[in-house]
Write a structure and sequence with these properties.
This protein is of the alpha+beta class and about 450 residues long. The chain contains 15 helices and 21 strands. The protein folds into 3 domains: about 220 residues, 3-Layer(aba) Sandwich (Rossmann fold), CATH 3.40.50; about 80 residues, 2-Layer Sandwich (Uridine Diphospho-n-acetylenolpyruvylglucosamine Reductase, domain 3); about 120 residues, no CATH class.
Length: about 450
């Protein structure tokens, strides 16, 4: 049995202290009738009497558990009446909504709950929402995020207080208190509560962590909940500092475009947070870790393959040394342009081609790099037969002793469909000579006049 942690129910911080608002600020308590919210109601009722704030309860019947949910609703109504506080009820058919929206039950239920809370706070001018999340919830959240894959921000866990929409704050006074201590408090104070039978359904990942993983940790380590809470608190402090540096950087940017040179001077942890905030601000969507890492790679490579698909139909791309957002597909008209020395700009594709004849060049076998090539031409006839064109359906490149589909080569090289239409292909009468990012056609000579070719964004 884990060692009991001392806590003083009547001395825990008030929601107003957590949110740093006046002590008489009204409170809306999310009340399920379970042990956690039942204990918190008992504590908040005493704080309300002492500090003079109004207390309102909110309960949602999700339409998932049938008669059991109706029992919970009736219990909440009776409990609110016993304390002399108002209870606001919401009845919703979550299974039907989840089917309509293509979401899971848990996700839809949470969305419904918090939408209801926000609506009440707006209508009643209540700026402070309180939930009964506790230390076991914190540990389960960290384990869940760690195994699913997360960064430092995810390991910050559940915050004791945060802004809630644009209506106020969400506070969690019991976040450092273990559930076993809450249950002891309910027994000591003779507080009746209801039990949600679905909490034991191990078909849900979090329930399985709660019922199978956490007990093992408690048998091996003293108070893993406290250790998880300490980890989250320390990481939140680190996150706050790094985020402040990211905010300072973004505040100095005068437009929605980020200069790559300036961004590259920052430490990588700060760059990641800049990219996260920049993406949210520009698209309205929160990027996943894979998107942020793709943006990091984009910045480090900074070449013509400069784009990353983001949520909401947006694309981030690098042009003229700046990272910018583009919405929707960028249409590029088909083109065919003669091969010539000097600079050639293909405006519609947003690229330029530089061709320079070299007076002296070391013969090399590796002719091609991703966006550049040293090409050898034996005669002006060979030179005049070359041209640049856009990609066409069914394009093939003779490589590795066989004709290979360019579309598949692009896909294997990680070149996005959007970029494929922009990349100019060097061709002659026999087909593709060079495809940037892929390579050159088999059998090209390495003698004759040497030309250095480079492609970049404009």
């Amino acid at each position: 049995m884990p060692k009991q942690t001392e806590w003083s129910p009547w001395e825990i911080a008030t929601p107003q202290e957590l949110a740093d608002v006046p002590k008489d600020t009204p409170v809306l308590l999310a009340f399920s009738g379970g042990a956690d919210s039942r204990a918190l109601l008992h504590i908040l009722a005493e704080q309300a009497a002492r500090n003079g704030f109004s207390l309102t309860l909110a309960h949602v019947n999700h339409g998932i558990r049938g008669d059991e949910a109706l029992r919970d609703r009736d219990f909440c109504v009776e409990t609110a009446a016993r304390y002399g506080v108002e209870l606001c009820l919401e009845e919703v058919d979550v299974p039907t909504l989840a089917a309509m929206h293509g979401t899971g039950l848990e996700e839809e239920a949470r969305s419904v709950r918090y939408s209801f809370f926000e609506k009440l706070m707006r209508e009643r001018s209540i700026p402070l929402l309180v939930t009964a999340h506790h230390a076991d919830d914190q540990l389960e959240t960290l384990l869940f995020r760690l195994c699913r894959g997360t960064g430092a921000k995810g390991l910050c866990g559940i915050s004791p207080v945060r802004t809630f929409s644009d209506v106020g704050y969400l506070a969690r006074p019991l976040l450092t208190v273990r559930r076993c201590d809450i249950l002891d408090f309910c027994r000591t104070e003779h507080l009746a509560y209801v039990v949600d039978s679905t909490n034991m359904d191990t078909a849900y990942a979090r329930n399985r962590i709660r019922t199978e993983v956490v007990p093992v940790l408690e048998s091996l380590f003293d108070d893993p909940q406290r250790r998880a809470a300490a980890l989250s608190e320390g990481l939140r402090e680190d996150e706050a500092y790094l985020s402040s540096l990211a905010e300072q950087f973004l505040s100095r940017i005068k437009s929605d475009e980020i200069p790559i040179a300036a961004l590259s001077e920052m430490a990588k942890p700060v760059i990641r947070r800049v990219l996260m905030r920049w993406t949210i601000k520009g698209t309205g969507y929160s990027p996943e870790r894979v998107h942020v890492e793709a943006l990091m790679h984009l910045i480090e490579s900074a070449n013509v393959r400069g784009e990353v698909a983001l949520p909401g139909g947006y694309t981030a791309e690098i042009e003229n040394g700046k990272l910018m957002l583009v919405y929707g597909k960028r249409e590029t008209e088909p083109y065919r342009i003669a091969f010539c020395e000097g600079n050639t700009v293909i405006s519609d594709a947003g690229v330029s081609i530089s061709v320079e004849k070299l007076s002296e060049c070391t013969k090399i076998n590796n002719l091609s790099i991703q966006t550049g090539i040293i090409l050898y031409l034996k005669s002006d006839i060979m030179k005049s037969s070359l041209f640049w064109r856009s990609r066409q359906e069914g394009d093939l490149l003779f490589k590795g002793g066989m004709h290979r589909k360019l579309r598949r080569l692009y896909r294997d090289a990680g070149v996005s469909p959007r970029m494929r239409d922009r990349i100019p292909l060097l061709c002659d009468g026999d087909g593709i000579v060079w495809a940037p990012f892929i390579g050159v056609r088999d059998g090209l000579a390495i003698d004759g006049d040497a030309y250095q070719i480079h492609i970049k964004t404009v």
